[in-house]
Structures are given as C-alpha cells and as structure tokens.
Amino acid sequence: MAQSPMLTDYVSLIMQLFDQFMQARIEQGIKQAKSSTYCSRWFIIFFMMMQFRGIYGFKTQWRWLTNHPEVLQILGWQQPPHRTTIARRYKALYEGIEALILFIGQYAANLSEQFHSTDLVIDKSLFKARGPVW
Asked: Where residue 68 falls among pLDDT bands split at 50, 70, 90?
C-alpha cells in the first residue's frame, strides 16, 4: 500500500519547482529582489499551507504559526514574523506568485497530455477579493 505524501514531500516538490523557476528568471535576465530576514521562497510555502488549511486572516496565520513551532523549523525561521510583516509580504509577493503559477502550469503541461490546458477558467473569487466585478 502506497503511503500518503507528507508535508515535507510537498515542500520539497514546491522548492524544486521554485528553484527551476528562479533559474529560468535568471536566464531571462529578470532581476531578483533583495534578500531579507524571511526569505520569499519560505513565505510562498507558508502561504500555500495557510491557503490549504483555510486560514486567511494575517493575525490568525500568525497565531497558528506561534502554536506550531515544528513549522517554524521547516521554514527555517527562528521566530514567527509579526502579523504586519506577514501581511506586507503577502501583498509584495503577488506578482511573483502569479509568475510562479504560470511557470508551474507550463512545466506540468510538458509532463503529460492530461495536463494540457485548452480552456481558460477564471475564478470569480479572485475578483471579489478586489471588490465587486461590476
């Protein structure tokens, strides 16, 4: 019987794809952002975990992170970032995450024909996040 993937399996897969994404950006001549205390790559993992768990509020994310020190260890953080840092980084990472999602979609399309996309589907909840559509 096959084992279910663990959190560390997902983290390592996403990190591999992120590294390939960053290498492709370097080859395209796109400048990288300056380094900071909390690396963007780990924030992407953190935000994906929070999305999966359905935890959307920054204060709630901070509280969850303070109650789960094992995740701090996985992310390589000594202490949880302040909730305003979480909010600020979330907003700053939007364009980078959008480009990463496009890269992963193109990467997956090359793996198998079942991943080829012929239709574009827009989730209306993305529009609701920025206000009413009309």
From this structure: very high
At 95, give phi and psi (nearest 5°).
-65, -40
Closest listed residue to residue 43, CA positions, set 5, 19, 65, 75: 75
Question: In the structure encoding, which two tokens stand for residue 89, read together?
Answer: 């980084």
DSSP assignment of 39-54 equals -HHHHHHHHHHHHHHT
Cα–Cα distance measured from residue 65 to residue 70, given in angstroms and rounded to the nearest whole number: 9
Q: Are 23 and 52 in contact (CB under 8 A)?
A: no
**Rounded to an integer, what distance in angstroms lies between the CA atom of residue 113 and that of residue 129?**
33
Query: What predicted TM-score, i.e. pTM, was given to this entire model?
Result: 0.65
In three-state secondary structure terms, 61 is helix
